[in-house]
Amino acid sequence: MDRRLFLKGSAAGAILALAPGKLYSAGPGRASFSGDFSKAAPLAGRYHVVVCGGGPAGFIAAIAAARKGAKVAIIERYGFFGGMATMGYVAPISEFAFAGERVIGGIPWEFVQRLEAMGGAYVEWPKGNVDFDIELYKLCAQRMVLEAGVDIYMHSSLIGCEMEHDIVRRVIIENKNGLESLSGGIFIDATGDGDLAWMAGVPMQPNPDGELQPSSFCFVLSGVDTDSALLRRYMYHSGKKGSSQCTPVREKLLELKQKGADLPDFGGPWFNSVMHKGSVAVNITRGAADSTDNRDFTGNECRLREDIFKFTDALRRNFPEFRECYVASIAPQAGIRESRRILGMHTVTADEYVAGVKYPDSVSRGAHQIDMHASKGSGQVLIKLQQAAYMPYSAMIAGDFPNIIVAGRCISADRKALASLRVQASCMGMGQAAGVAAARCLEEVRAVQDIDVDALVDDLVKMGVIL
Ligand SMILES: Cc1cc2nc3c(=O)[nH]c(=O)nc-3n(C[C@H](O)[C@H](O)[C@H](O)COP(=O)(O)OP(=O)(O)OC[C@H]3O[C@@H](n4cnc5c(N)ncnc54)[C@H](O)[C@@H]3O)c2cc1C
User: Fold this and answer.
1) Which atom of ligand 1 is nearest the CA belonging to 333?
2) Which residues pair with 222 in a beta bridge?
3) Do 420 and 397 share a domain, yes or no?
4) pLDDT tens digits along 321-355
5) DSSP letters of 273-286?
6) Is the shortest distance between the CB of 57 and ligand 1 below 6 Å?
7) How many domains does the chain divide into?
8) Residue 255 belongs to domain spanning
9) What is the C-alpha to C-alpha distance for residues 8 and 257, in angstroms, rounded to an integer?
């Protein structure tokens, strides 16, 4: 029997020391191991569905699969759900509606309504952008996941997987208990970076020129005059007032840069409501880095942390609305716009996406314009959608891997299509589809490639998905 264990980086060393066996190469940064590793990473639980990553795609996927009757585990390396929303301070949740009509429904929309009822969300029409309170977001997501009966493994990093041919048998996690493993029938990769798919050997989208959209380290500024005309005009993103980036601040900062001020490249800036008087989440910093390379990403975060204070100082000095402002909190990590994406059975192209091509296996929607940030400088390319876009199930699975489904930012899409479908409402929609598809695989006892897609679509529509 061909049983292999794929491990990320240094974790390989830990397991190999405990369970010596035969080591052979499986590409850069990955080690593959054969032997008895059950003692090194004891089984912590057996599940029908294991979801890796608790961001917008992951926590919704876990709820969806559990509500369909599956026994579900979710693995998250931080101590809370929400991914970029809560670990990256990325706001608002974009976009639930196209031309004033809501196109994303079911559990994602239920989440927004519950958060709204808790006083933690404000929906801006006609785009259906959702401002939110970061801490209430975490609480609401946690409640819904626990209510669905999902077992949660927080503070746990996915570091490896045990493969039998192309089937994932177990995932290996690392937390304060040491190394543990979870077995499962279907595994959903919602890590944003496609960590599980990559460890399992799923082919990834080529990126010949190495270009990536930049990362941005977001932060909360307090002491801001949020009642001022400037902030009231630019803090909300309904689309009713044109551009959401704060043009007066942008122009002034560009002018200062031109005059030689020590200001780094920046994006926007965008000042986003966190639903509290005096505070805004700021998206302004920009740094090109590969989030799947630890040293590159760490170096980038260190530079951007410096930049946060440079920009705060410039805001204080040049704008009365920011005179009293201070950095109240920096996100736990820099935000990632682009990294690994699988090479799936179908790759969504920007042409298909912008035209709103409807696939026979459409399972989710997208409403945000294509929003491509330049890796260097302050540029950004925006392309409007002709109609709300569709995401096919075949972009969430790879040909040769019978029990892996991918949801969220790491699905199979070209760079331009990604620049729209990466937004949170779309990722939640994909998560919902992945969770229901996983439950269907188990019900039908079929591989992810072989399930009855019409039945999947029926299930989704019954849950309120708008296809
Ligand atoms: C600066 C910036 C601005 C943006 N602006 C907007 C915007 O205005 N509106 C909008 O809707 N979207 C915006 N986005 C996009 C959006 O936030 C993300 O694309 C979206 O959150 C992706 O969702 P996801 O669930 O696929 O991944 P993520 O949100 O990245 O979630 C992945 C989760 O998996 C966990 N994880 C990852 N690896 C592991 C591992 N090995 N082990 C355990 N856990 C792991 C992470 O901790 C995280 O919780 C922006 C993104 C950035 C970076």
Assistant:
1) 47
2) 326
3) yes
4) 999 999 999 999 999 999 999 999 999 999 999 99
5) E-SSTT-EEEEEE-
6) yes
7) 2
8) 219-330
9) 42
